[in-house]
Amino acid sequence: MIDLACVASFFAVAETGGFRAAAQRVGLSQPAVTQHIRKLERWLRAELIDRGNAGSVLTPQGRAFLPYAEILVRTSERAQAMFEKKNIVVGASSNIGIYLLPKHLKACSEALGLELDIVIGANPDIADRLQNLAIDVACIEWWDERPGFVAQCWKQERLVVIVPPGHPWADRESIPAALLQNATLLGGEAGTGTGRLLRQCLGERAAGLRTGMQLGSTEAVKRAVEAGLGISIVMASAVADEQSHGRLRAIPLADAPLEKSLYIAWRDHPLHENPAARFARCLLDSGAGRRVRQ
Amino acid sequence: MIDLACVASFFAVAETGGFRAAAQRVGLSQPAVTQHIRKLERWLRAELIDRGNAGSVLTPQGRAFLPYAEILVRTSERAQAMFEKKNIVVGASSNIGIYLLPKHLKACSEALGLELDIVIGANPDIADRLQNLAIDVACIEWWDERPGFVAQCWKQERLVVIVPPGHPWADRESIPAALLQNATLLGGEAGTGTGRLLRQCLGERAAGLRTGMQLGSTEAVKRAVEAGLGISIVMASAVADEQSHGRLRAIPLADAPLEKSLYIAWRDHPLHENPAARFARCLLDSGAGRRVRQ
DNA sequence: ACACGTTACGGCAACCGTAAGGATT
DNA sequence: AATCCTTACGGTTGCCGTAACGTGT
């Protein structure tokens, strides 16, 4: 059976680019790291690292092994952390992590006496990390039901159409769906389910809806709309600032109350004293949660 | 650093329900397993197993640790297997694994001189296993792009409406979308993207489409339709048998050629001699693949 | 000369198996 | 008595650190 200490040393070498630095990071002498790498290489029957005097670099085989090493190291770290009841890791999709989460975190952290680490990423990425045990609690914009997890609806966030101040729609109170019929919307982060939501909410009236440019982030979308490159639909809280400064107009839809459900999801541990679940419930209490699936 | 041998012993105890059987499985003496479990328990500062004379059972904390243990054990096994260039694991969503894959596997296995293990599961489950490194190649019905992976379109499978022989539509040559307008379809496996595909393909005409009963498998859907409980839409190759025996009618849509793209996905190893990639390409060659994403 | 990784070697810890010891049914 | 896990103990392994040794810049 492989030795995790060897894997940790390998991972450290891969990250630091040298045996000496790796030894320091894992708290061993440098020859010990040499031994670890040799042992791994014998075990896998493959050379993993090209030793050069100006830094060590992974061989192709080493690069192939790297994701395995990372999973092994991170999983063992997380397993240990789970029982120490401290330092839980919260993952959030970009929109939530940037615009909504910060104001809740401090209260929950203090109420529970927990240290929090935050990871912000794309929505599917966060879902995967939850599955991989790399994060304990996920705050996400879209959740496909998976066995072994609990997900609850956290908030219903209003979505609004955003246009620049000079736009023909800028002074409307609301926007009827018919206006959107042939509009082209600037796209933000992929995989957040906004497209799905729109089609579901507008029904047949969404047929002509198109999304131009995938800009990758809501920040980018806001800047693009400010610059007059187009219009978009975003979560209301993402544009509160710009709206109050008059840089953007945020206008609700007229006939359909367009709301996106945000979810808190965590692994359904049978552990009674489950810190992830406690944190999740604390978050939910500050957002009037509604149970979706156990 | 935790010892993987201890984790393997724990996992074996969890699966076999006893220290003796676990010892036999991992090839150690029984006291060695006792030591392993004690070491783990000391390391995690938690009791993991309730020792009873009539079998050992996991404590709640043990059950909480179990998924971590499984990931650690399976990942190390997979890492080792990767370098042995043998025995690659293919995951397939149920429909593909049952109706399409078998006829291709033997040829690919022989052409490459590889042993194959097959895992069949729900579509999201297979995608997760690919991410977790539990499988090497995934044959799936829906793929959300993830960094670090390669996915290619493998086949375009025709979808057909299935109705029982006595149904009013049984003798139609094709079914116009308008007929489906307010139909209720029996649902099969969740998360395969058929619903999405339908809405995308039928556009606004899908507005009234409803799915009743989630039956969980295509086999169940077929039996339910045979029994006259309703109609459904399935992959043509899933009902070839029933169609030729006259137990079901399979009827294409009239105005939209309804096709589902099936994908082969694998981890984008930089390893030159990557057996998973070789196998994937072999499969693609037998299905006229079209590149989607690198 | 310096920085990096390797080799050599010795002490010490830890692991495993055998054998004997409770505890429960 | 039978089964299951634990304890006790000794031999062996192998891991780690110190120190000395190549090697390339």
Structure description:
- Helices cover 43% and strands 23% of the residues of chain A.
- The first copy, chain A, has 294 residues and is of the alpha/beta class.
- Chain A has three domains: 73 residues, Winged helix-like DNA-binding domain superfamily/Winged helix DNA-binding domain (Arc Repressor Mutant, subunit A), CATH 1.10.10.10; 105 residues, 3-Layer(aba) Sandwich (D-Maltodextrin-Binding Protein, domain 2); 103 residues, 3-Layer(aba) Sandwich (D-Maltodextrin-Binding Protein, domain 2).
- In chain A, β1 and β2 form a beta hairpin.
- Chain A is elongated.
- The interface between A and B is large, with 54 and 53 residues.
- The structure holds a DNA duplex (25 and 25 nucleotides).
- Reported CATH architecture of the largest domain in chain A: 3-Layer(aba) Sandwich
Biggest sheet details of chain A: 8 strands, mixed
Quaternary: homodimer
Chain pair forming the biggest interface: A-B, 54 and 53 residues
Elements of chain A, N to C (H/E)? HHHEEHEHHEHEEHEHEHEHEEHE
Number of helical segments of chain A? 12
CATH class of the largest domain in chain A: Alpha Beta
- Could you report the average pLDDT of chain A, rounded to the nearest whole number? 86
Approximately how much helix is present in the residues of chain A? 40-55%
Rough shape of chain A? elongated
Low-pLDDT stretches of chain A = 289-294
Radius of gyration of chain A: 24 Å
The CATH topology of the largest domain in chain A is given as D-Maltodextrin-Binding Protein, domain 2
Find the count of extended strands of chain A (DSSP E, 2+ residues).
Answer: 12
The named CATH superfamily of the largest domain in chain A: Periplasmic binding protein-like II
Distance between the termini of chain A: 37 Å
| Backbone structural class of chain A | alpha/beta
Strand content of chain A: 15-25%
Overall number of structural domains of chain A: 3
